[in-house]
TrEMBL record, chain A:
Belongs to the binding-protein-dependent transport system permease family. This is ABC transporter permease. The keyword Cytoplasm does not apply. The chain crosses the membrane at residues 9-31, 79-102, 114-133, 139-158, 196-221, 241-263. The lineage of its organism: Bacteria, Pseudomonadati, Pseudomonadota, Alphaproteobacteria, Rhodobacterales. The keyword Transmembrane helix applies. Gene3D superfamilies: MetI-like (1.10.3720.10). Pfam families: BPD_transp_1, OppC_N. One of its GO terms (cellular component) is plasma membrane.
TrEMBL record, chain B:
It comes from Sagittula salina. This is ABC transporter permease. One of its GO terms (cellular component) is plasma membrane. Its main location: membrane. It is a multi-pass membrane protein. It is found in: Cell membrane. Residues 95-296 form the ABC transmembrane type-1 domain.
From TrEMBL, chain D:
This is ABC transporter ATP-binding protein. Its main location: membrane. It comes from Sagittula salina. The keyword Metal-binding does not apply. It comes from the Bacteria. It is found in: Cell inner membrane. Belongs to the ABC transporter superfamily. GO terms for molecular function: ATP binding; ATP hydrolysis activity. Residues 550-563 have a biased composition (Basic and acidic residues). The keyword RNA-binding does not apply. GO terms for cellular component: plasma membrane.
Length: 279, 306, 519, 593
């Protein structure tokens, strides 16, 4: 019963992801307007944006652009940030955490001290500096985000790896003569999957919003390229005058993160043979 | 214990050294000239050069860094380029407010996050649990600026329960602390939930129930202290995450902390202030981690410091 | 010419003013932010001053002044019995000390350059002298200032905050912290300052102008988001939101007659413009610059900022003396613009970059500009950066185009020359200068120098010359003047005083010395 | 003895304290209701001990949890009654049940290591239990708790009150559990495998204690165990369960003397008995000059503690100068109490911990080998761990797990490996069709077979069995032991057999060493050590073994010092070495003072 429900939720999650990815990919064909065209009829004579309805299903923004079109194009950016940048951060964090936790010795110590250093380093400042030094483009921003966001994952993975490598089946594996890399990839990594799913899915909102913060600081994706995060940030002071400009992209980020979480949960169940829907 | 502390302090100092060096280098290569900002728009090339020499900004990077470090160990963080005031004075004036906000924020995220997490764990699998987990995503995904303004609008302007921004009394602290804590509470509720589910499966919980304790006592006295253990280490990490949020929250609520100082300094490349704030926040993070590591064994008698 | 005090004014009461940014310093030699500018004005006085709410000069600490024939020697007679906040009587020595201090490189004053016309300035700047040779103390009540060249704006310079008179002993006592412990002769003195929270100004009971200030004091609360400040104003906790009405709330306020009635609108000496780097391909071609001038839809841009500005035709704002009435500027026309591009051999357009400071509404304006230029085939990449980075790029001449908003030129003093030197003249065109279009035309520079060498700043002939200067500039089109921002100051119901005081061109947001409360 | 029993169990005279009738407990799993315990009935009188015996998974724990009202969420009592003093426990509302729990009926759980709250001190956990039921002040409760601790004869009870569970040994923890359960003098005490996790010597003490407390307080006890020795030593009546149903219920003597059911008979037959080993004797393999493995003065140390510079301050002398050989085709046993260093020797041999001294495998020294060399040695030595669940990667199908060693060493093609795995499955008595299942889908015994199959896949010369059968049911244990013996006959593999169960060891080993505090104190052939134990420690171990014969109960022994001497010393301080003496025919005994 609950399993069925879970499956339904996962399906729902999949549907949302497909919808978002589809929207992003098909944006040039399905968007009613070009995303950065400032339509004359998109603003009132006083310069106010239009609420959802009529010609503009999601309303218009402060420059009279169609929000729906911007959301569709913004999905491209946000997917890259939320999935790719966040994914890379997750990979780096996992790699560092696993290596430090498993290698012990000086490699582990050096990696962990480095992680501590990165943790003490104000991430935003680092992002600002990196982005100001390189010219901010979508990929640079994604890289910067990945570079500052791996630290927490590394910490958590480290703790978990240390605990895992104490487990008996790892010792058993060693007595079989398994090489370290084999133990790492075949036996430790799969066990980190649940943790990584939690961190990965929560990380989606965090990175998407971080990209927006960077845009706000002038080091993010440059206008007029839309991203869900910078749509929020651009308009956040207008949350009373034009709430749709904040709440629509906010809901989109939330849904995306939630969708990945639902799919991730299902994936965890599938990947974990011991899990029998009992949590 | 003393030995452990000593080693950790040395380690912390090394980390701070690393942070200071990296920050210094990053600011050095940053494409913005602080002298321009100081000299103003009507300055001549001569004036600009004068100021550059006066501030020693014409020296090689390592010399500048060495000089900064020498000052730093004597507690001298330099003078702000634009305000001409001692950075240490500026930070000292604002740090208490930020620390207070941070403590408030941590308290809020713990109270909100842990409560939600425990409730979700106890009712796990039920609609309430699923609802709470969606809530945790909302909390993580909500932009702080909007949350802050929303809270301010509802609770201060409309209901008048709290003052509209400002600093001073406990009432002033509530809304900013909640705003700051909401994002973290999303994380904590999820972590607490899984930790709690784990603990509730443990044998000693069964023992506690077999003793005939009430459900609430089993939860509060036996499950909670154990479930919290893995969370403590996270609080140290939190301080780092908060440093970002503080800028936004402080400006929404007019909170006189270092976030706004840092923000203005970054906008105008006031390098001594940026350095100072970075060092102070790095120290706070390092200390937070240290504290977490020291607190853990106090809560968990099994862990001995090594 | 003197100001007639408001007959309804009542003394007493405190007001609260809010600002987002912290007050960096109250040292008159250093402070150059727009929020400390008016604060310093109320704490300090210079030899010259303005009639409240206007751009008319009037004597300040000087009771009278004389100018010699060729306008190079100014003799100021000081007022009797003016005391500093510390009780000491101000003398001519203090005037000299203050001018020496502001021009001394050690002080690192951003305003030092304004004094370049005083004899001996160059020696000061290069560090070979410790005192301006052009400033002489004749007797305790008289100062003689000799200029190395005639300077029509000199009296305005003497009204700048940088020329404020400071007491030597206080400066020496506090050293570089003087900015946190200001001591002047102004209408208010600093009471309390808790960094990052609030400053309290107290009425200077011994103020040398009779009857003012009316207020017992002013509380400045800093670190407050403009939106929140407005909410507090609506709750009656704040009297004047220093940062004005936030764009997000503008329609709401103006749509409510009760609130709109408390909004004072006025012009200010501001122009928002796009610099076109004449040293960079293909902006070095005049037709290209003209095309860009024609392509910008200024009406639309003013609409985007809720109509809080008027479209500009030339560098000078309309309320500035020397403004060329009747000049239409480059008319908006896509076809005409395209034709110009074709003339330059760029009928396929080109791509370029537009630098902009990253605070609202500037990136939005940049996007509007981007769209306008796209219509004539010019592809613009927006580089939205922190203020310091934009200034750096502009100074280094790396930026093809810069939207000036946020860092823009609000005149230091109401004189047409103020819009030329550093931002359009050859002096600012060098490496690191503020002339971001790197525009340098010697012949125009000569005209400007000639105009400034006239003694009387308001001489119609001089104003005509300046008008010609800017017309010449417009012919060369190094800028696209986009709009002149209007000022909208909102006040609480209890605030009294002439509307002009709330849009005082030199004292933003209000002239603290002359406003009063009605309850 | 018998007198006491009949007095305690008057046939139908008084009302029984607990009357269980047709108790059925079912689990609701994905909408299907499946009984876990069906139609269970028994009576229990005050002061009596009822043992519930049966293989793992037969529903023993579920029964006890049902009585306590502590069933998991998806499990519930679906029919039948359990009347305590005439009141039906399963139908009591939770609030009243809670008031009874701990006061009227108490429970001791199997795992002393995890059954106490690790972050609360002993005193608090005890007083809390008291105060939950009696309106006494904190101080009075503490006084009562102290009395309870004294009663279970914990040394230094005042100090223990302030200590945390991890600071106590397993035996002490179990005593605390008992103290907690008995503090409020419950009418009924349920002890679910109270000694399974303990050493024989400690088990003996705990059992003695329970028996003593029972005579003192008159509490009725339900003792759940799968150890027939324990049953024989403590119970008045026995209920044998299998697959959720009661197989037989009888007074203990009757059951052991004349079991009426086949299952009971099989169960009793599978119980390893001391002295039975001699019957299975096989010729000792000769002492060849080429042993499979040879340990010479092996030492293993763990450094702990830290000073200012992070240097260790203390050293655990886990293994201190151990020497022995393992000959081809022989089973060498290592016995000793928990913590004496048995596993550490196994680990040193398997290369999991660094050692000092010399370990040779097939004539090659372990230390200083290259990576390739190490891996080659891995093919010769395999290990079978105590807990098969923990030793198998839960995310890997068992087929893959068994093939894993061959993959690691690059043996055969995928098909060949598959064929070999299938073959191995058959060898260890598993169906090759089960290869694609995951470990959790097997029973404990089956899992251990999988581990053995994995160990065999490389055709090693030596298999280390570290407590490999301790966690298994007796019947399963017997099967696994038979399997091991069979494999040895077929392939000539040698075993290093580590166990704390003297009876098992006696049944399987050819030679053995008795370990104490990291050193071997007695070593010889099975007949030498068991038939003629010369070291006092060996005798103590042998005496502690419960005898599965209710007619041969041992009287409670006098107290002995509970605190084992510690193998932890400050760095630099040498530990005292024992000197071994050959008392003939390779029978070595440590000198005692
Ligand atoms: N929560 C549960 N859900 C479903 N089945 C369960 C649950 N708890 C126990 N079982 C099943 O009930 C049966 C009886 O379990 P129980 O724990 O009573 O066995 P046991 O006799 O105590 O075994 P052991 O000697 O291993 O402790 C087992 O088959 C077990 O798998
Ligand atoms: N990694 C380690 N660090 C510190 N001490 C250890 C470590 N491993 C084992 N010890 C200690 O070494 C001693 C011997 O441990 P070992 O595991 O060999 O005992 P054992 O005889 O196998 O006991 P058991 O019957 O409980 O398995 C114990 O005191 C143990 O606490
Ligand atoms: Mg059980
Ligand atoms: Mg062991």
């Amino acid at each position: 019963m609950r399993r069925l429900l879970r499956r339904k939720l996962a399906l729902f999650g999949c549907a949302i992801i497909v919808l978002v990815v589809g929207g992003a990919v098909l944006a040039p064909w399905i968007a009613p307007y070009p995303p950065d065209e400032q339509l004359f009829e998109g603003l009132t004579l006083l310069g106010e944006p239009l609420p959802p309805g009529g010609d503009f299903l999601m309303g218009t923004d402060l420059l009279g652009r169609d929000l729906l079109s911007r959301m569709l194009y913004g999905a491209q950016t946000s997917l890259i940030i939320g999935v790719v940048a966040n994914g890379v951060a997750l990979v780096i964090g996992t790699l560092v955490g696993v290596l430090a936790g498993f290698m012990r010795g000086w490699i582990g110590a050096v990696l962990m001290r480095f992680t501590d250093l990165m943790m003490a380093f104000p991430a935003l400042l680092l992002a600002i500096c990196l982005a100001a030094i390189f010219q901010p483009s979508l990929w640079i921003v994604a890289m910067v985000i990945a570079l500052v966001n791996w630290v927490q994952t590394a910490r958590v993975v480290y703790t978990e790896t240390t605990a895992l490598s104490e487990r008996e089946f790892i010792a058993a594996e060693k007595t079989l003569g398994a090489s370290r890399s084999r133990i790492l990839f075949r036996h430790i990594l799969p066990h980190l999957v649940p943790t990584l799913i939690v961190w990965g899915t929560l990380g989606i909102s965090v990175t998407v919003l971080l990209e927006a913060t960077l845009s706000y600081l002038g080091v993010g994706v440059q206008p007029p390229t839309p991203s869900w995060g910078n749509i929020i940030f651009e308009n956040q002071t207008y949350f009373q005058a034009a709430p749709w400009l904040v709440f629509i992209p906010g809901a989109a980020i939330l849904l995306l993160a939630l969708a990945f979480n639902l799919v991730g949960d299902a994936l965890r169940d599938v990947l974990d043979p011991t899990q029998r829907g009992n949590d | 214990m003393a030995g452990y502390l000593f080693r950790r302090l040395v380690q912390s100092a090394l980390i701070l050294l690393g942070v200071s060096f990296i920050t210094f280098v990053l600011l050095y290569v940053l494409p913005a000239d602080p002298v321009r900002q100081i000299a103003g728009r009507s300055a001549t090339a001569q004036t600009v050069e004068n100021i550059r020499t006066q501030l020693g900004l014409d020296q090689p990077l390592l010399v500048q860094y060495g000089r900064y470090l020498a000052g730093l160990v004597q507690g001298d963080m330099g003078r702000s380029y634009l305000q001409k005031t001692e950075v240490s004075t500026l930070i000292a004036a604002r740090l208490p407010a930020s620390l207070l906000l941070m403590v408030g924020g941590i308290a809020c995220e713990l109270v909100i996050g842990l409560t939600l997490g425990v409730v979700a764990a106890v009712w796990r699998g039920r609609p309430l649990d699923q609802g709470l987990m969606v809530t945790s995503f909302v909390a993580v995904s909500a932009p702080q600026f909007v949350v802050g303004l929303l809270l301010l609008y509802v609770f201060a302007v409309q209901l008048g329960w709290f003052p509209i921004g400002g600093y001073g009394t406990a009432a002033h602290l509530v809304l900013p602390a909640v705003t700051l804590g909401i994002m973290g509470s999303g994380w904590y509720s999820r972590m607490m939930r899984s930790s709690m589910i784990d603990v509730l499966r443990q044998d000693y919980i069964r023992t506690a129930r077999a003793k005939g304790l009430t459900r609430s006592r089993v939860l509060m006295r036996h499950a909670l202290p154990n479930a919290i253990l893995p969370i403590i280490a996270m609080i140290g990490i939190d301080i780092g995450i908060f440093m970002g949020g503080i800028v936004v929250v402080e400006s929404v609520f007019g909170w006189p902390g270092i976030g706004q100082l840092a923000w203005q300094a970054i906008q105008r490349v006031d390098i001594p202030i940026i350095m100072g704030v970075t060092m102070v926040s790095a120290a706070a993070i390092v200390l937070g981690n240290l504290l977490a590591d020291i607190i853990t064994p106090l809560v968990d008698p099994r862990i001995r410091l090594r | 010419q003197e100001y007639t005090p408001d007959p309804n004014a009542k003394p007493g009461g405190m007001i609260t003013v809010t600002y987002k940014d912290d007050v960096a310093t109250l040292d008159p030699a250093i402070g150059y932010d727009w929020q400390n500018w008016s604060m310093i004005k109320s704490l300090f006085d210079g030899l010259m001053d303005y009639v409240p709410g206007t751009t008319e000069l009037r004597p300040g600490l000087a009771s009278a002044y004389e100018i010699n024939e060729n306008g190079t020697v100014f003799t100021f007679t000081l007022r009797e019995g003016v005391t500093f906040h510390n009780g000491r009587v101000m003398t001519a020595e203090d005037v000299k000390y203050s001018l020496d201090r502001v021009t001394n490189p050690e002080t690192q004053s951003p305003g030092a350059g304004f004094f370049a016309s005083i004899a001996g300035y160059d020696e000061m700047a290069s560090g070979t002298a410790t005192s301006l040779s052009g400033v002489e103390v004749i007797d305790p009540q008289t100062v003689k200032i000799t200029l190395s060249r005639p300077d029509a704006t000199f009296l305005h310079v003497m009204a700048l905050n940088f020329a404020s008179v400071v007491p030597k002993e206080a400066v020496e006592e506090y050293g570089t912290d003087f900015g946190k412990h200001p001591v002047g002769t102004g209408a208010f003195k600093l009471g309390e300052w808790s960094i990052g929270q609030r400053l309290v100004f107290e009425k200077n009971a011994d103020y040398w102008r009779d009857g003012v200030p009316y207020l017992d004091g002013v509380t400045f609360e800093v670190g407050q988001e403009p939106i929140v400040a407005l909410l507090r104003l609506q709750q009656g906790e704040v009297d004047v939101p220093g940062d004005g009405i936030p764009p997000a709330k503008f329609q709401e306020v103006m749509g409510d007659p009760e609130q709109a009635a408390r909004v004072v609108e006025g012009g200010q000496l501001h122009t928002g413009y796009i610099t076109l780097n004449v040293a960079m391909e293909p902006l070095d071609k005049l037709p290209v610059r003209e095309a860009i001038n024609m392509a910008i839809n200024k009406e639309r841009i003013t609409q985007i900022i809720n109509g809080r500005a008027v479209p500009a035709t030339q560098p000078l704002p309309p309320s500035m003396p020397g403004y060329t009435e009747g000049y239409e500027g480059y008319a908006f026309g896509v076809e005409a613009a395209k034709a110009k591009l074709e003339e330059a051999g760029l009928s396929d357009g080109f791509s370029t970059e537009l630098y902009v400071m990253n605070t609202d509404p500037n990136p939005r304006i940049a996007q509007a500009i981007q769209q306008d230029l796209k219509a004539i085939g010019v592809d613009v990449d927006i580089r939205s950066l922190a203020q310091a980075n934009v200034i750096e790029a502009g100074g280094a001449g790396q930026a093809p185009m810069i939207w000036s908003g946020g860092m823009a030129w609000i005149a230091d003093f109401p004189d047409p020359s103020n819009f030329y030197g550093p931002i359009l003249g050859c002096a600012g065109a060098g490496e690191g200068g503020w002339n971001w279009s790197k525009f340098c035309d010697e012949s125009i520079d000569d005209m400007a120098t000639k105009a400034d060498s006239m003694t009387d700043p308001s001489d119609p002939e001089r104003l005509k010359m300046w008008s010609d200067v800017y017309m010449k500039v417009m012919e060369e089109a190094p800028w696209v003047p986009v709009f002149n921002e209007q000022r909208y100051t909102m006040k609480s119901a209890r605030m009294g005083g002439d509307d002009a005081l709330y849009v005082d061109p030199v004292s933003i947001p209000v002239n603290y010395d002359y406003v009063y409360v009605t309850e | 003895m018998t007198a006491l029993h009949s007095a305690a169990a008057p046939e139908g005279a008084a009302e029984p304290l607990l009357r269980v009738r047709d108790l059925t407990v079912s689990v609701r799993d994905r909408g299907v209701v499946r009984p876990l315990v069906a139609g269970l009935s028994f009576d229990l009188h005050g002061g009596e001990t009822l043992a519930i015996a049966g293989e793992s998974g037969s529903g023993k724990s579920i029964t006890s949890l049902a009585l306590m009202g502590l069933l998991p969420n998806n499990v519930s009592v679906t029919s039948g009654q359990a009347l305590l003093d005439g009141i039906d426990l399963p139908s009591l509302p939770e609030a009243r049940m809670r008031a009874w729990r701990g006061a009227r009926l108490a429970m001791i759980f199997q795992e002393p290591m995890t059954s106490l709250n690790p972050v609360q001190n002993i005193g608090d956990q005890l007083t809390e239990a008291i105060r939950a039921h009696e309106p006494v002040s904190r101080r009075d409760a503490a006084a009562q708790a102290l009395v309870a601790l004294r009663k279970v004869r914990i040394p230094e009870p005042e100090r223990r009150m302030r200590q945390y569970p991890h600071e106590l040994s397993g035996g002490m923890r179990q005593r605390v559990m008992i103290a907690m359960a008995l503090a409020l003098r419950p009418a009924l005490l349920i002890a679910d495998e109270p000694t399974t996790a303990l050493d024989v010597t400690v088990q003996r003490e705990v059992l003695d204690l329970l028996r003593e407390l029972q005579t003192e307080t008159g509490t009725a006890i339900i003792l759940i165990t799968h150890d027939m020795g324990v049953v024989a030593e403590t119970a008045d009546r026995v209920v044998v369960m299998r697959q959720g149903r009661m197989v037989e219920s009888a007074p203990v003597e009757t059951l052991f003397a004349t079991p009426s059911q086949d299952y009971t008979r099989a169960l009793l037959a599978a119980v390893p008995r001391l002295g039975a080993g001699a019957a299975r004797a096989k010729p000792l393999p000769p002492a060849t000059p080429a042993p499979v493995a040879r340990l010479m003065d092996v030492q293993v140390h763990f450094d702990i503690g830290a000073n200012f510079l992070g240097q260790a301050t203390h050293r655990v002398h886990a293994v201190e100068g151990v020497s022995f050989d393992i000959r081809p085709g022989e089973t060498f046993g290592l016995v000793g109490e928990s913590g004496c260093g048995k596993s550490t020797i196994a680990k040193a041999l398997a290369g999991l911990v660094p050692h000092e001294g010399r370990v040779e495998v097939d004539g090659k020294a372990l230390a200083g080998l290259t990576v390739q060399g190490r891996r080659a040695i891995c093919r010769d030595i395999q290990m079978v761990f105590q807990d098969p669940m923990a030793a198998l990667d839960p995310r890997m199908t068992v087929g893959v797990a068994v093939a894993e060693p061959m993959v690691i060493h690059g043996i055969g093609t995928a098909e060949e490996r598959h064929a070999r795995v299938a073959d191995l499955f058959q060898r260890v008595g598993l169906n090759p069709e089960q290869m694609s299942r995951y470990p959790h889908e097997f029973s404990g015994g089956q899992r251990q077979r999988i581990c053995i199959a994995r160990a065999l896949s490389l055709r090693p010369k030596l298999i280390i069995c570290d407590e490999s059968v301790s966690a298994l049911d007796v019947s399963v244990q017997a099967q696994v032991l038979d399997l091991l013996a069979e494999l040895q006959r077929e392939t000539g593999v040698s075993y290093l057999f580590i166990s704390h169960d003297m009876a098992v060891v006696e049944n399987v080993v050819d030679r053995l060493g008795v370990m104490y505090m990291g050193q071997i104190v007695e070593m010889g052939t099975r007949d030498q050590v068991f038939g003629n134990p010369r070291h006092s420690y060996t005798t103590r171990l042998l005496d502690a073994v419960p005898i599965p014969d209710p007619t041969r109960r041992m009287p409670p022994r006098p107290e002995r010092d509970l605190d084992l001497p510690s193998p932890i010393r400050p760095i630099g301080e040498a530990s005292r070495r024992v000197r071994m003496r050959n008392i003939g025919e390779e029978h070595f005994v440590a000198e005692e003072d």
